[in-house]
Every structure is written in C-alpha cells, then in structure tokens.
Design goal:
The protein has 288 residues and is an alpha+beta fold. The chain has a 5-stranded antiparallel β-sheet with strand order 2-1-5-4-3.
Amino acid sequence: MTDAVDPARLRELGDFLRSRRNRLRPADVGLPPGGRRRIPGLRREEVATLAAISPTYLAFLEQGRDVRPSRQVLDALAGALRLSTAERAHLHELVHHAAPAVVTPGGETLPPAVAALVDRLDPCPAYVTGRRWDVLAANRAARALWTDWLLLAPGARNMLWWMFTDPAARTVFVEWEQEASAQLARFRSAAARHPGDRGFAELTARLKAASPEVRAWWPRHDIAPLSSGTKRLRHPLLGELELRHVVLLTADDVEQKLVAFLAADADQARIAELIAADQRPGGLLPRP
C-alpha cells in the first residue's frame, strides 16, 4: 500500500467493519448470549478476541484511523466476522487496493458452462488454463493446431511444460523463443501472487531440470502481464497461420484464463475443414 491513504477509504473500512460486527449474534460465532445488549451484534471486545487483536486496535480501525493493518490481520478479522469470499476480498481492497490471491488446495475445477463454451467456439481455437497454466479445457481446433492435451499424461497437460519440453512446440510456434520467454514471464508474475502455493515451486523446479532455456531465463526475473495480441503458428497441412487472440478471465476464478483465437476468413475456413475431416472415419489428420 502507498504511503498516502485516502481518508474516504478509511471511513469506508470503519463503516464496513462495524456493519459486519453488528449483523452477528453471539451464537453465530459460538459465544454465549452474555445477557442483555444495548445494541445488536457483537461487542467490539468479542470480535477483537476472536481475531486475536486488541480492542483498541479494532476501535482505531472502526474509527477510520490510519493504522494500516497487515493482510494477516485482515484475514483474522474476516474469519472473526464470518465474511464471505467477496467480503474478504473487499476488505483487502479497501486497505491494500488489491484482493489477496486465492490458493485453491488440490486440483482446479472448471465450471461446466465454461468448458461447454470452449467447445462451442469451434472452429475458432480456444482453451482455458488455470493458475499454473494447466490446460483445463481445449476445443478441437486448439488441439489440432497446438497438441491434443487430452492424450497427454495428467502431469504433462500444462502449457509451460509442453512449451519447454515437447520438441513439437518449437515447430508449432513460428516465433518459439519469443513466445516461450513471454510465457515464462507471465508464469513468474502469477507465481508472485501465490507465494504459499507449493505447486508453483514444484513446477518451476521441474522446468529448470528439464529445460536449459528455463535455467538461463529464470535469473533474468522477467515479468509480463496477460495480454491480447497475435500468434504465428505452423501446421503440417495448413502451413503458417496468424491468429489474433483475446484473454478473458472467468468471474468464478480470475486465475482461470480463457484464450480465444480468430484467423483471417480464408484460414478460419481451412481450420473448420481440418477439424471436420478429423471427425470423419479414417480422417484423422496428422498433428504438429
């Protein structure tokens, strides 16, 4: 957070904390009723005890003073006040101007509606990647032009792993080095948002062990944001293609990225013909 704090945001923070404290009852947080109360909701001392902070500190926050709570304190308050995921994010945004990264334990789940949308985008190539660039969905056009991730082992269904360890990727991407270095820089940006996610460290270690380029480029500390643009691909039957793409973040999980591509009309028609032939008996076409 910057040194200058908007007083309006501090007042909003205080009002927000008081409103959430007032809506709770002792039973909601496992406390006894404690006799008659002059005002509804929990007492400030009760919330402070639940959050393991001092009542005076909580009073300062509710009064809108510039005391600058850490993310750990905000998470403690979010738990004490039984905030929803959206409310917790709002609390962090008021103080730190950004919601905290959400670490999802285990594997990622893609909403069925998003997976269905990806399929319906055929013959426009489209895929969805997760927080560590695992490929969560890909339509027929994307699998025909990149690789068929559904046929790969689960641990290999990752855009970076494929980019740096599969020799076919260097054929698919006309400008492989530019694409690979940019992908690694975007991955590094995402890893910085998830310092507690061991999966990032494990994947980084695997990539360094398998790829001399990752070992050489990682010390540069290159960082890149997600962005739309163009990609040049090479296919054994279609030749070189230039595709414009957009990156969309899903509302249910902003770390899940839907990437959709569009080629020139003539090339788009050839992609449609390619995947149509792939569906006919005996029509399986060679992939890059």
